[in-house]
Please model this.
Amino acid sequence: MGRLKQRRFDTNQGKTPLDDTSGLLVEVHSREQLNALEFANVNKAITKYLLRHPTEKMAPFHYSWFLQTHREMFREVWNWAGQIRKSNKTIGIDKSQIPEALKMLEKDYHYWIASKMAMDEITARLHHRLVWIHPFENGNGRWARLITNIHLRKNELPLIQWPEKSLMDTSVVRQKYLKVLREADHQNFRPLMDLHRSLQK
Ligand SMILES: Nc1ncnc2c1ncn2[C@@H]1O[C@H](COP(=O)(O)OP(=O)(O)OP(=O)(O)O)[C@@H](O)[C@H]1O
Ligand SMILES: [Mg+2]
Model:
């Protein structure tokens, strides 16, 4: 028994084993390897949208573009990239309500922009609504953070420098990030606005 366990550990070379691999488009042997592949794919989307000022045509903030950005971030790694999740999770709304909720966000977002709402409140509301809907199987946090930054770039505002590495573990930073998102669940957007501001460069 002990030897078996040891051998299994060795084939992973001490690396965290993978859990759910259904939908993986590439052969991956460890969590670290998967993280690196996702990171490379996500970076292509970041470069596309944040290097230059995104035009209205490039980043229209409409329903199908919301799905398209997730696809661009994960299409080299997962076959469900850009597809609405097919199961319910402990986080996020019921799967059957996702398309309607994203279309509602599209409408609300354009209304907020046209209204006199302060831009930092729009930023927090947008970010919160995206993670609250939680449209995809995975990658929702990274997708919501990228869309939030595309919104800032489009509006010529300083980008949020998310400490992506610290957000991946159980760090104090992550605890704080989750706490302010939960406060926004109760329409209290101030703590999320403050977190955004503290990370804007
Ligand atoms: N306990 C929680 N309460 C509220 N929101 C949560 C909680 N746990 C996770 N989330 C939200 O879900 C996201 C994680 O979802 P998912 O795993 O799909 O995204 P990810 O991009 O893979 O992960 P991450 O955001 O950790 O980089 C978090 O970024 C956060 O927005
Ligand atoms: Mg995840």
